[in-house]
Amino acid sequence: MKNIPEVKLGIAAVSRDCFPMVLSASRRQQVVKAYKEKGHSVYECPTTIENELHMRKALAELKEAGCNALVVYLGNFGPESSETLLAKEFGGPVMFVAAAEEAGDRLLDDRGDAYCGMLNASYNLKLREIQAYIPEYPVGTPEEVACMMEEFLPVARTILGLRNLKIISFGPRPQDFLACNAPIKRLYDLGVEIQENSELDLYESFLKHEGDERIAEVAASMEKELGAGNKKSEILPKLAQYELTLLDWIEKNKGSREYVAIAGKCWPAFQTMFGFVPCYVNSRLTAQGIPVSCEVDIYGALSEFIGTCVSEDAVTLLDINNSVPADMYASEIAGKYPYTLKDTFMGFHCGNTPSCKLSSCEMKYQKIMARSLPVEVTSGTLEGDIAPGSITFFRLQSTADAKLRAYVAEGEVLPVATRSFGGIGVFAIPEMGRFYRHVLIEKNYPHHGAVAFGHYGKALFDVFRYLGVAEIGFNQPKGMRYPTENPFA
């Protein structure tokens, strides 16, 4: 993944002036030792912070070391003003965590009271309106704190990525896909830049890439990737030309930002003007860590980028598309997997899922579009069943009145042949039927959901909390009633 940040983590210990500073410093050393034993690197700030002058000295040391994420470690009670000012002035993502007491015979001179200090730290963070990551249980032994630091890494990586992200979009949302439209104001609140372009700008750039000497090399790369699935070889040069158009556009237009995601247009005029559909190219860029959403879904692209940062892997964007037929459920799922029919559904998109996430793939034409257009202008989809395994379905969305809302649900892709077309899989999420009604429908989410390949619910939930998202939906288990769920149903 070349389009996501590298976290350079630092740790700074804080100490209340009426507690031994050496207690906090020695505990910090044990945490660093435990973290490095897990195979990670961390900068150990040599200054232990008792006051604001120490804070400034430590801040300078952290910056000189190139740290972009920080663990504030309460080795004892800690000075709430100095430690929270450190978080404010550091500027990057910050985690607060506290030391557990070591032993019953050390509760006289070596008692640290960090359990109490975390309360004051959290209170002061709120007073100063500073966002920080606080683990579910933020008090631990050196080994436990090292595990908390590992869990902080994907959160920090995502926050850093969003603060240096530009989303490049082409064209307005199609007429009947207004659900993918959302106010861009909240992008700026998150620190994300947006560059909205006309499809005409993109088409002009595409035409200028005709005859580009790099086309043959990119087309050869496509041939190698597709292998026996290369069923539309005649379209590869045009697809290669389009891929180069997008990559050159990114380099020319990302400006001061390091990371890019794209919200692309793919219909209704794209096929007839460009002569193909962009699905396969979208999949290739997404596999490189540059997410490309379909149908100018800006918050879909944002969600995909978040998933890429969290998982450090390719993601996809799918329609929460259709129910699994009852006869198919009865013959291939019932009794074999612990899911009801309503727990299952099919996630689909025309052909934007990277080949590395498909059981097998073929380059084909877009079946739906070909119902009303010449087949030859609808080629360019990457079709195949999505590989079975764990997944997380999620989305960050701005509502019409510019409030951030999110959902996260873990599940799996079942090893069941779809018997259908496009990039598609049979998905199972526990209590999906209730989640579908009382979160996805009730909260007005669009039909697109981002998919990360693995269980990343905890990290994604923590990311959304860090971003200040007040309402995060999830697939609630039986016995946990949704507020809108009819208790008599």
> Helical residue percent?
25-40%
**Assembly annotation:** single chain
* Strand ordering within the main sheet: 10-11-16-15-14-17
Distance between the termini: 47 Å
Rg, rounded, reads 25 Å
- Note the overall shape: globular
Mean pLDDT: 94
The number of helical elements comes to 15
Offer a concise description of the structure.
The protein has 15 helices and 18 strands.
Would you mind describing this structure in some detail?
The protein is of the alpha/beta class and 489 residues long. It is 36% helix and 20% strand. It has a six-stranded antiparallel β-barrel with strand order 10-11-16-15-14-17, surrounded by four helices. Strand 3 (69-74), helix 3 and strand 4 (94-99) form a beta-alpha-beta unit.
Give the helix/strand layout.
Layout: E1 9-14, H1 21-37, E2 43-44, H2 52-64, E3 69-74, H3 80-90, E4 94-99, H4 114-127, E5 139-140, H5 142-162, E6 165-170, H6 185-190, E7 193-197, H7 199-208, H8 215-226, H9 236-253, E8 259-263, H10 270-274, H11 279-287, E9 292-293, H12 298-311, E10 315-322, H13 326-332, E11 344-349, E12 362-365, E13 379-385, E14 389-398, E15 404-413, E16 423-428, H14 432-441, E17 448-452, H15 457-466, E18 471-474
Parallel strand pairs: 1-2, 1-3, 3-4, 4-5, 6-7, 6-8, 8-9, 13-16, 15-18
Antiparallel strand pairs: 10-11, 10-17, 11-16, 12-13, 14-15, 14-17, 15-16
